[in-house]
Specification:
This protein has two domains: about 270 residues, 3-Layer(aba) Sandwich (Aldehyde Dehydrogenase, Chain A, domain 1), CATH 3.40.605; about 190 residues, Aldehyde Dehydrogenase, Chain A, domain 2. The protein contains 14 helices and 25 strands. α2 packs antiparallel against α4, α3 packs antiparallel against α6 and α4 runs parallel beside α5. It binds nicotinamide-adenine-dinucleotide.
Amino acid sequence: MTTEYTNYIDGAFTARSAATLEVTNPATGALLARIPDSDAAAVDAAVAAAKRAQPAWEKLPAIQRAGHLRKIAAKLREHRTELARIIVREQGKVQGLAQVEVDFTADYMDYMAEWARRLEGEVLTSDRPNETIFLLRKPVGVVAGILPWNFPFFLIARKLAPALVTGNTIVIKPSEETPINAYEFARLVAETDLPAGVFNLVGGRGATAGDALVSHPDVNLITFTGSVATGSRIMQTAGKNLTRVNLELGGKAPAIVLADADLDLAAKAIYDSRVINTGQVCNCAERVYVERSVHDAFVERLTALFKATRYGDPSVDADLHMGPLVNQIGLEKVEALVEQAKRDGANVVTGGKRADLGQGFHYEPTLITGARAEMDIMRKEIFGPVLPIQAVDSLDEAIALANDSDFGLTSSIFTRNINSAMQAVRELRFGETYVNREHFEAMQGFHAGRKKSGIGGADGKHGLYEFTETHVVYLQTP
Ligand code: NAD
Protein backbone atom coordinates (compact mmCIF):
# COMPACT_ATOMS: atom_id res chain seq x y z
CA MET A 1 0.00 0.00 0.00
CA THR A 2 1.25 3.48 -0.86
CA THR A 3 1.88 5.71 2.14
CA GLU A 4 -0.19 8.87 2.22
CA TYR A 5 1.42 11.61 4.27
CA THR A 6 -0.36 14.50 5.93
CA ASN A 7 0.92 17.93 6.91
CA TYR A 8 2.45 18.56 10.31
CA ILE A 9 0.91 21.70 11.82
CA ASP A 10 0.85 22.92 15.43
CA GLY A 11 2.46 19.75 16.77
CA ALA A 12 0.07 17.29 15.10
CA PHE A 13 -0.43 15.53 11.80
CA THR A 14 -3.50 16.93 10.08
CA ALA A 15 -6.43 15.15 8.45
CA ARG A 16 -5.94 13.85 4.93
CA SER A 17 -5.96 16.40 2.18
CA ALA A 18 -8.62 16.11 -0.53
CA ALA A 19 -6.05 16.82 -3.23
CA THR A 20 -2.75 14.93 -3.33
CA LEU A 21 0.45 14.76 -5.35
CA GLU A 22 2.28 11.57 -6.29
CA VAL A 23 5.93 11.02 -5.48
CA THR A 24 7.83 8.61 -7.72
CA ASN A 25 11.27 7.00 -7.87
CA PRO A 26 13.32 8.65 -10.67
CA ALA A 27 15.28 5.44 -11.26
CA THR A 28 12.20 3.26 -11.90
CA GLY A 29 9.11 5.44 -12.15
CA ALA A 30 7.54 3.47 -9.27
CA LEU A 31 4.97 5.29 -7.14
CA LEU A 32 6.41 5.82 -3.64
CA ALA A 33 3.88 7.95 -1.75
CA ARG A 34 1.23 10.62 -1.88
CA ILE A 35 1.50 13.99 -0.17
CA PRO A 36 -0.97 16.84 0.30
CA ASP A 37 -1.39 19.26 -2.58
CA SER A 38 -1.87 21.97 0.02
CA ASP A 39 -3.89 25.09 -0.60
CA ALA A 40 -3.70 28.56 0.93
CA ALA A 41 -5.86 27.51 3.90
CA ALA A 42 -3.36 24.83 4.96
CA VAL A 43 -0.51 27.32 4.64
CA ASP A 44 -2.49 29.83 6.66
CA ALA A 45 -3.01 27.29 9.46
CA ALA A 46 0.72 26.52 9.53
CA VAL A 47 1.76 30.17 9.62
CA ALA A 48 -0.82 30.90 12.34
CA ALA A 49 0.58 28.03 14.44
CA ALA A 50 4.13 29.28 13.97
CA LYS A 51 3.07 32.80 14.91
CA ARG A 52 1.30 31.63 18.07
CA ALA A 53 4.26 29.53 19.19
CA GLN A 54 6.96 32.13 18.54
CA PRO A 55 6.79 34.43 21.60
CA ALA A 56 7.12 31.56 24.12
CA TRP A 57 9.85 29.94 22.03
CA GLU A 58 11.79 33.21 21.96
CA LYS A 59 11.49 33.49 25.76
CA LEU A 60 13.01 30.06 26.27
CA PRO A 61 16.75 30.47 26.97
CA ALA A 62 18.80 29.77 23.84
CA ILE A 63 20.55 26.88 25.53
CA GLN A 64 17.19 25.16 26.00
CA ARG A 65 16.24 25.80 22.39
CA ALA A 66 19.57 24.20 21.46
CA GLY A 67 18.67 21.19 23.59
CA HIS A 68 15.67 20.58 21.35
CA LEU A 69 17.91 20.67 18.26
CA ARG A 70 20.22 18.12 19.88
CA LYS A 71 17.30 15.81 20.62
CA ILE A 72 16.22 15.95 16.98
CA ALA A 73 19.82 15.28 15.88
CA ALA A 74 19.90 12.19 18.10
CA LYS A 75 16.64 10.96 16.53
CA LEU A 76 18.10 11.40 13.05
CA ARG A 77 21.14 9.35 14.02
CA GLU A 78 18.95 6.58 15.45
CA HIS A 79 17.16 6.35 12.08
CA ARG A 80 20.12 7.17 9.84
CA THR A 81 19.94 4.07 7.64
CA GLU A 82 16.25 4.25 6.83
CA LEU A 83 16.40 8.01 6.20
CA ALA A 84 19.23 7.48 3.72
CA ARG A 85 17.23 4.75 1.99
CA ILE A 86 14.33 7.17 1.52
CA ILE A 87 16.58 9.80 -0.06
CA VAL A 88 18.01 7.17 -2.43
CA ARG A 89 14.55 6.14 -3.55
CA GLU A 90 12.88 9.50 -3.96
CA GLN A 91 15.79 11.59 -5.22
CA GLY A 92 18.02 9.03 -6.98
CA LYS A 93 21.09 9.82 -4.87
CA VAL A 94 23.70 7.08 -4.53
CA GLN A 95 23.68 5.27 -1.20
CA GLY A 96 27.00 6.57 0.13
CA LEU A 97 26.12 10.21 -0.52
CA ALA A 98 22.60 9.80 0.90
CA GLN A 99 24.14 8.49 4.12
CA VAL A 100 26.59 11.41 4.18
CA GLU A 101 23.62 13.76 3.75
CA VAL A 102 21.76 12.30 6.73
CA ASP A 103 24.82 12.25 8.99
CA PHE A 104 25.83 15.76 7.95
CA THR A 105 22.29 16.96 8.70
CA ALA A 106 22.48 15.62 12.26
CA ASP A 107 25.93 17.18 12.71
CA TYR A 108 24.60 20.46 11.37
CA MET A 109 21.83 20.50 13.98
CA ASP A 110 24.45 19.98 16.70
CA TYR A 111 26.72 22.62 15.18
CA MET A 112 23.94 25.23 15.17
CA ALA A 113 22.99 24.21 18.72
CA GLU A 114 26.55 25.15 19.79
CA TRP A 115 25.77 28.77 18.89
CA ALA A 116 23.28 29.03 21.78
CA ARG A 117 25.96 30.35 24.14
CA ARG A 118 27.65 32.42 21.46
CA LEU A 119 24.81 34.66 20.23
CA GLU A 120 26.20 38.14 20.76
CA GLY A 121 24.98 41.71 20.66
CA GLU A 122 27.19 44.77 21.05
CA VAL A 123 27.68 47.55 23.58
CA LEU A 124 28.50 50.86 21.90
CA THR A 125 30.00 54.11 23.15
CA SER A 126 27.54 56.98 23.37
CA ASP A 127 28.12 60.67 22.57
CA ARG A 128 26.16 61.60 25.70
CA PRO A 129 27.03 61.39 29.37
CA ASN A 130 25.47 58.58 31.43
CA GLU A 131 24.26 56.77 28.35
CA THR A 132 24.96 53.24 27.15
CA ILE A 133 23.97 51.99 23.73
CA PHE A 134 23.11 48.32 23.34
CA LEU A 135 22.72 46.53 20.03
CA LEU A 136 20.55 43.48 20.67
CA ARG A 137 20.03 40.61 18.26
CA LYS A 138 16.49 39.31 18.15
CA PRO A 139 14.67 36.67 16.14
CA VAL A 140 12.76 37.90 13.08
CA GLY A 141 9.62 35.92 14.06
CA VAL A 142 8.10 33.44 11.61
CA VAL A 143 10.43 32.00 8.98
CA ALA A 144 9.29 30.30 5.77
CA GLY A 145 11.76 27.74 4.41
CA ILE A 146 11.24 26.68 0.80
CA LEU A 147 13.40 23.78 -0.33
CA PRO A 148 14.75 22.29 -3.57
CA TRP A 149 15.07 18.57 -4.27
CA ASN A 150 18.83 18.14 -4.65
CA PHE A 151 19.88 17.99 -0.97
CA PRO A 152 16.35 17.82 0.41
CA PHE A 153 17.14 16.51 3.87
CA PHE A 154 20.18 18.67 4.63
CA LEU A 155 18.32 21.77 3.53
CA ILE A 156 15.66 21.22 6.20
CA ALA A 157 18.42 21.61 8.80
CA ARG A 158 20.11 24.49 6.99
CA LYS A 159 16.88 26.47 7.35
CA LEU A 160 15.45 25.07 10.60
CA ALA A 161 18.51 24.87 12.87
CA PRO A 162 19.68 28.51 12.68
CA ALA A 163 16.06 29.71 12.69
CA LEU A 164 15.18 27.81 15.86
CA VAL A 165 18.34 28.41 17.87
CA THR A 166 17.92 32.18 17.37
CA GLY A 167 14.31 32.06 18.60
CA ASN A 168 12.24 31.93 15.41
CA THR A 169 9.57 29.42 14.50
CA ILE A 170 9.38 27.95 11.03
CA VAL A 171 7.12 26.62 8.29
CA ILE A 172 8.91 24.36 5.80
CA LYS A 173 7.68 23.59 2.30
CA PRO A 174 9.73 20.77 0.75
CA SER A 175 10.09 20.27 -2.99
CA GLU A 176 7.20 18.33 -4.50
CA GLU A 177 9.85 16.06 -6.09
CA THR A 178 11.34 14.93 -2.76
CA PRO A 179 8.95 15.51 0.16
CA ILE A 180 8.99 12.05 1.78
CA ASN A 181 12.19 12.65 3.74
CA ALA A 182 10.67 15.85 5.15
CA TYR A 183 7.53 14.01 6.32
CA GLU A 184 9.74 11.38 7.94
CA PHE A 185 11.70 14.21 9.59
CA ALA A 186 8.39 15.54 10.95
CA ARG A 187 7.53 12.09 12.23
CA LEU A 188 10.77 12.04 14.23
CA VAL A 189 10.29 15.59 15.49
CA ALA A 190 6.82 14.58 16.69
CA GLU A 191 8.48 11.94 18.91
CA THR A 192 10.43 14.68 20.74
CA ASP A 193 9.04 17.32 23.08
CA LEU A 194 9.55 20.24 20.71
CA PRO A 195 6.73 22.67 21.57
CA ALA A 196 3.78 22.64 19.16
CA GLY A 197 3.96 25.15 16.31
CA VAL A 198 7.72 25.70 16.46
CA PHE A 199 8.22 23.54 13.37
CA ASN A 200 5.48 23.05 10.78
CA LEU A 201 5.56 21.19 7.48
CA VAL A 202 3.29 21.87 4.51
CA GLY A 203 3.61 19.94 1.26
CA GLY A 204 2.48 21.05 -2.14
CA ARG A 205 3.31 22.77 -5.38
CA GLY A 206 5.36 25.92 -5.71
CA ALA A 207 2.70 27.88 -7.56
CA THR A 208 0.08 27.21 -4.86
CA ALA A 209 1.46 26.25 -1.42
CA GLY A 210 4.81 27.96 -2.09
CA ASP A 211 3.20 31.14 -3.34
CA ALA A 212 0.73 31.23 -0.41
CA LEU A 213 3.65 31.00 2.01
CA VAL A 214 5.72 33.64 0.26
CA SER A 215 2.84 36.10 0.04
CA HIS A 216 1.67 35.54 3.63
CA PRO A 217 1.75 38.81 5.62
CA ASP A 218 2.68 37.02 8.86
CA VAL A 219 5.89 35.54 7.44
CA ASN A 220 8.85 37.69 8.46
CA LEU A 221 11.68 36.02 6.54
CA ILE A 222 11.66 33.78 3.47
CA THR A 223 14.69 31.55 3.16
CA PHE A 224 14.64 29.91 -0.23
CA THR A 225 16.99 27.53 -2.03
CA GLY A 226 16.25 26.78 -5.65
CA SER A 227 16.45 28.15 -9.17
CA VAL A 228 17.12 31.72 -10.23
CA ALA A 229 13.71 31.96 -11.95
CA THR A 230 11.81 30.95 -8.81
CA GLY A 231 14.05 33.10 -6.60
CA SER A 232 13.28 36.12 -8.72
CA ARG A 233 9.53 35.42 -8.59
CA ILE A 234 9.66 34.97 -4.82
CA MET A 235 11.49 38.25 -4.38
CA GLN A 236 8.83 40.06 -6.41
CA THR A 237 6.03 38.49 -4.35
CA ALA A 238 7.85 39.20 -1.08
CA GLY A 239 8.20 42.81 -2.17
CA LYS A 240 4.47 43.36 -1.74
CA ASN A 241 4.75 42.89 2.03
CA LEU A 242 8.42 43.95 2.17
CA THR A 243 9.21 40.54 3.62
CA ARG A 244 12.92 39.87 4.02
CA VAL A 245 14.45 37.27 1.68
CA ASN A 246 17.47 35.00 1.88
CA LEU A 247 18.03 33.42 -1.54
CA GLU A 248 20.41 30.57 -2.38
CA LEU A 249 20.15 30.17 -6.13
CA GLY A 250 21.91 28.60 -9.08
CA GLY A 251 25.56 28.47 -10.06
CA LYS A 252 27.92 28.02 -13.00
CA ALA A 253 31.10 27.26 -11.10
CA PRO A 254 34.37 27.71 -13.01
CA ALA A 255 37.43 25.56 -12.28
CA ILE A 256 40.78 26.99 -13.42
CA VAL A 257 43.64 24.55 -14.05
CA LEU A 258 47.08 26.13 -14.51
CA ALA A 259 50.08 24.49 -16.19
CA ASP A 260 51.87 24.04 -12.85
CA ALA A 261 48.93 22.21 -11.19
CA ASP A 262 49.04 18.68 -9.88
CA LEU A 263 46.99 17.34 -12.81
CA ASP A 264 45.99 14.09 -11.11
CA LEU A 265 44.63 16.00 -8.14
CA ALA A 266 42.91 18.58 -10.36
CA ALA A 267 41.26 15.94 -12.56
CA LYS A 268 40.03 13.91 -9.57
CA ALA A 269 38.72 16.95 -7.64
CA ILE A 270 36.93 18.40 -10.67
CA TYR A 271 35.53 15.00 -11.61
CA ASP A 272 34.27 14.45 -8.06
CA SER A 273 32.60 17.83 -7.96
CA ARG A 274 31.00 17.24 -11.36
CA VAL A 275 29.47 13.79 -10.95
CA ILE A 276 28.41 14.17 -7.29
CA ASN A 277 24.63 13.86 -7.12
CA THR A 278 24.66 13.26 -10.90
CA GLY A 279 25.83 16.83 -11.45
CA GLN A 280 22.81 18.30 -9.69
CA VAL A 281 24.55 20.52 -7.14
CA CYS A 282 24.59 24.32 -7.15
CA ASN A 283 28.33 24.45 -6.46
CA CYS A 284 29.36 21.64 -8.83
CA ALA A 285 32.27 22.43 -11.17
CA GLU A 286 30.30 23.41 -14.29
CA ARG A 287 33.03 24.70 -16.67
CA VAL A 288 36.79 24.32 -16.84
CA TYR A 289 39.47 26.72 -18.09
CA VAL A 290 42.73 24.84 -18.54
CA GLU A 291 46.07 26.24 -19.71
CA ARG A 292 46.73 25.11 -23.27
CA SER A 293 50.11 23.48 -22.56
CA VAL A 294 48.51 20.90 -20.22
CA HIS A 295 45.12 20.67 -21.94
CA ASP A 296 45.67 17.26 -23.54
CA ALA A 297 47.29 15.67 -20.48
CA PHE A 298 44.46 16.97 -18.29
CA VAL A 299 41.71 15.83 -20.67
CA GLU A 300 43.32 12.38 -20.87
CA ARG A 301 43.07 12.01 -17.09
CA LEU A 302 39.49 13.28 -16.96
CA THR A 303 38.44 11.01 -19.83
CA ALA A 304 39.66 7.96 -17.94
CA LEU A 305 37.67 9.03 -14.88
CA PHE A 306 34.50 9.81 -16.87
CA LYS A 307 34.70 6.47 -18.72
CA ALA A 308 35.04 4.55 -15.45
CA THR A 309 31.87 6.13 -14.00
CA ARG A 310 29.38 3.54 -12.80
CA TYR A 311 25.74 4.59 -12.89
CA GLY A 312 22.34 2.99 -12.56
CA ASP A 313 19.58 2.46 -10.01
CA PRO A 314 21.10 3.34 -6.62
CA SER A 315 18.48 1.34 -4.71
CA VAL A 316 19.74 -1.94 -6.12
CA ASP A 317 23.47 -1.22 -6.49
CA ALA A 318 25.39 0.18 -3.51
CA ASP A 319 28.55 0.85 -5.48
CA LEU A 320 27.70 3.58 -7.97
CA HIS A 321 29.10 7.02 -8.73
CA MET A 322 25.78 8.30 -10.09
CA GLY A 323 22.06 7.66 -10.06
CA PRO A 324 19.44 9.08 -12.43
CA LEU A 325 18.57 12.73 -12.95
CA VAL A 326 15.63 13.84 -10.86
CA ASN A 327 12.96 13.91 -13.58
CA GLN A 328 12.14 14.02 -17.28
CA ILE A 329 12.43 17.80 -17.43
CA GLY A 330 15.94 17.65 -15.95
CA LEU A 331 16.94 14.99 -18.47
CA GLU A 332 15.57 16.95 -21.42
CA LYS A 333 17.34 20.12 -20.25
CA VAL A 334 20.72 18.38 -20.09
CA GLU A 335 20.15 16.70 -23.44
CA ALA A 336 19.18 19.99 -25.12
CA LEU A 337 22.31 21.78 -23.81
CA VAL A 338 24.62 19.02 -25.09
CA GLU A 339 22.89 18.92 -28.50
CA GLN A 340 23.26 22.71 -28.74
CA ALA A 341 26.97 22.43 -27.80
CA LYS A 342 27.45 19.90 -30.63
CA ARG A 343 25.76 22.26 -33.10
CA ASP A 344 27.97 25.08 -31.79
CA GLY A 345 31.05 23.06 -32.75
CA ALA A 346 32.20 21.59 -29.41
CA ASN A 347 33.63 18.03 -29.33
CA VAL A 348 32.07 15.27 -27.26
CA VAL A 349 35.01 13.24 -25.92
CA THR A 350 32.89 10.70 -24.10
CA GLY A 351 29.15 10.34 -23.40
CA GLY A 352 26.88 12.85 -25.10
CA LYS A 353 23.54 11.07 -24.98
CA ARG A 354 20.85 9.51 -22.78
CA ALA A 355 21.92 6.26 -21.18
CA ASP A 356 19.66 3.42 -22.17
CA LEU A 357 19.10 1.42 -19.00
CA GLY A 358 15.52 0.49 -19.88
CA GLN A 359 14.05 2.81 -17.24
CA GLY A 360 14.85 5.97 -15.29
CA PHE A 361 16.19 9.40 -16.27
CA HIS A 362 19.83 8.49 -16.90
CA TYR A 363 22.32 10.54 -18.90
CA GLU A 364 25.82 9.36 -19.80
CA PRO A 365 28.71 11.07 -18.00
CA THR A 366 29.84 13.51 -20.67
CA LEU A 367 33.11 15.34 -21.30
CA ILE A 368 33.17 18.15 -23.84
CA THR A 369 36.24 19.92 -25.24
CA GLY A 370 36.55 22.86 -27.61
CA ALA A 371 33.97 24.83 -25.64
CA ARG A 372 33.98 28.60 -26.11
CA ALA A 373 32.80 31.40 -23.85
CA GLU A 374 29.79 32.35 -25.97
CA MET A 375 28.29 28.81 -26.03
CA ASP A 376 25.23 28.09 -23.87
CA ILE A 377 27.06 25.10 -22.36
CA MET A 378 29.54 27.60 -20.81
CA ARG A 379 26.88 30.08 -19.70
CA LYS A 380 23.77 28.21 -18.54
CA GLU A 381 23.48 25.97 -15.50
CA ILE A 382 23.63 22.36 -16.77
CA PHE A 383 22.58 20.45 -13.61
CA GLY A 384 23.68 17.11 -15.03
CA PRO A 385 26.88 15.04 -15.43
CA VAL A 386 28.34 17.12 -18.26
CA LEU A 387 31.66 18.98 -18.11
CA PRO A 388 32.69 21.47 -20.82
CA ILE A 389 36.35 22.47 -21.14
CA GLN A 390 37.91 25.51 -22.74
CA ALA A 391 41.67 25.97 -23.35
CA VAL A 392 43.15 29.32 -22.25
CA ASP A 393 46.52 31.02 -22.61
CA SER A 394 46.94 32.66 -19.21
CA LEU A 395 45.60 33.05 -15.69
CA ASP A 396 44.38 36.54 -16.60
CA GLU A 397 42.29 35.12 -19.43
CA ALA A 398 40.90 32.35 -17.20
CA ILE A 399 39.87 34.82 -14.49
CA ALA A 400 38.24 37.15 -17.01
CA LEU A 401 36.25 34.27 -18.52
CA ALA A 402 35.31 32.92 -15.08
CA ASN A 403 33.99 36.32 -14.03
CA ASP A 404 32.08 36.84 -17.28
CA SER A 405 28.99 35.08 -15.93
CA ASP A 406 25.55 35.85 -14.54
CA PHE A 407 26.40 33.60 -11.59
CA GLY A 408 28.81 34.01 -8.68
CA LEU A 409 28.47 31.11 -6.26
CA THR A 410 31.59 28.90 -6.19
CA SER A 411 34.86 28.72 -8.12
CA SER A 412 38.16 26.85 -7.90
CA ILE A 413 41.78 27.06 -8.98
CA PHE A 414 44.43 24.37 -9.24
CA THR A 415 48.06 25.56 -9.09
CA ARG A 416 51.27 24.99 -7.12
CA ASN A 417 52.07 28.72 -7.27
CA ILE A 418 50.82 30.68 -4.26
CA ASN A 419 51.03 33.96 -6.18
CA SER A 420 48.70 32.63 -8.88
CA ALA A 421 46.31 31.28 -6.26
CA MET A 422 46.24 34.61 -4.44
CA GLN A 423 45.71 36.55 -7.67
CA ALA A 424 42.66 34.37 -8.32
CA VAL A 425 41.40 34.90 -4.77
CA ARG A 426 41.73 38.66 -5.19
CA GLU A 427 40.14 38.87 -8.61
CA LEU A 428 37.44 36.15 -8.77
CA ARG A 429 33.99 37.58 -8.12
CA PHE A 430 32.44 34.62 -6.37
CA GLY A 431 31.15 33.85 -2.90
CA GLU A 432 33.54 30.90 -2.54
CA THR A 433 36.87 29.80 -4.03
CA TYR A 434 38.41 26.38 -3.49
CA VAL A 435 42.18 26.14 -3.99
CA ASN A 436 43.46 22.69 -4.96
CA ARG A 437 40.33 20.87 -3.78
CA GLU A 438 36.84 19.90 -4.81
CA HIS A 439 33.87 22.27 -4.54
CA PHE A 440 32.17 21.44 -1.26
CA GLU A 441 31.49 23.84 1.56
CA ALA A 442 31.92 23.46 5.33
CA MET A 443 29.21 24.19 7.90
CA GLN A 444 31.38 26.80 9.65
CA GLY A 445 32.00 28.69 6.39
CA PHE A 446 29.55 31.03 4.67
CA HIS A 447 27.79 29.72 1.58
CA ALA A 448 26.70 32.84 -0.26
CA GLY A 449 26.32 33.66 -3.91
CA ARG A 450 27.00 36.89 -5.73
CA LYS A 451 25.10 38.24 -8.74
CA LYS A 452 22.20 35.93 -9.73
CA SER A 453 23.43 33.20 -7.38
CA GLY A 454 21.58 34.78 -4.53
CA ILE A 455 21.13 37.29 -1.75
CA GLY A 456 22.52 36.60 1.71
CA GLY A 457 23.92 33.22 2.61
CA ALA A 458 23.92 30.22 4.92
CA ASP A 459 26.14 28.49 7.48
CA GLY A 460 28.53 29.68 10.16
CA LYS A 461 28.15 32.84 12.19
CA HIS A 462 27.14 34.98 9.21
CA GLY A 463 24.46 32.51 8.12
CA LEU A 464 23.13 32.31 11.67
CA TYR A 465 22.74 36.07 11.99
CA GLU A 466 20.62 36.19 8.81
CA PHE A 467 17.85 34.80 11.04
CA THR A 468 18.07 37.74 13.44
CA GLU A 469 17.39 41.43 13.36
CA THR A 470 18.95 44.17 15.40
CA HIS A 471 17.35 46.31 18.07
CA VAL A 472 19.36 49.26 19.36
CA VAL A 473 18.64 50.58 22.84
CA TYR A 474 19.82 53.97 24.20
CA LEU A 475 19.87 53.69 27.99
CA GLN A 476 20.14 56.82 30.11
CA THR A 477 21.20 56.22 33.72
CA PRO A 478 21.71 59.71 35.24
P1 NAD B 1 12.91 25.28 -8.08
O1 NAD B 1 13.17 26.74 -8.06
O2 NAD B 1 12.22 24.70 -9.24
O3 NAD B 1 12.05 24.84 -6.80
C1 NAD B 1 12.49 25.07 -5.49
C2 NAD B 1 11.30 25.18 -4.56
O4 NAD B 1 10.55 26.35 -4.87
C3 NAD B 1 10.32 24.01 -4.62
O5 NAD B 1 9.94 23.68 -3.30
C4 NAD B 1 9.16 24.60 -5.39
O6 NAD B 1 7.94 23.99 -5.08
C5 NAD B 1 9.19 26.03 -4.91
N1 NAD B 1 8.51 27.00 -5.78
C6 NAD B 1 8.37 26.95 -7.14
N2 NAD B 1 7.66 28.02 -7.56
C7 NAD B 1 7.37 28.77 -6.46
C8 NAD B 1 6.69 29.99 -6.26
N3 NAD B 1 6.16 30.68 -7.27
N4 NAD B 1 6.60 30.47 -5.00
C9 NAD B 1 7.14 29.81 -3.96
N5 NAD B 1 7.79 28.64 -4.09
C10 NAD B 1 7.92 28.12 -5.33
O7 NAD B 1 14.34 24.61 -7.85
P2 NAD B 1 14.72 23.06 -7.88
O8 NAD B 1 14.63 22.58 -9.30
O9 NAD B 1 13.97 22.34 -6.83
O10 NAD B 1 16.27 23.10 -7.43
C11 NAD B 1 17.34 23.22 -8.33
C12 NAD B 1 17.93 24.61 -8.28
O11 NAD B 1 18.29 24.93 -6.94
C13 NAD B 1 19.18 24.75 -9.11
O12 NAD B 1 19.15 25.95 -9.84
C14 NAD B 1 20.29 24.83 -8.05
O13 NAD B 1 21.45 25.50 -8.45
C15 NAD B 1 19.60 25.50 -6.92
N6 NAD B 1 20.26 25.20 -5.64
C16 NAD B 1 20.99 26.19 -5.04
C17 NAD B 1 21.66 25.95 -3.84
C18 NAD B 1 22.47 27.02 -3.16
O14 NAD B 1 22.84 26.82 -2.01
N7 NAD B 1 22.75 28.15 -3.80
C19 NAD B 1 21.57 24.69 -3.27
C20 NAD B 1 20.82 23.69 -3.89
C21 NAD B 1 20.15 23.97 -5.08
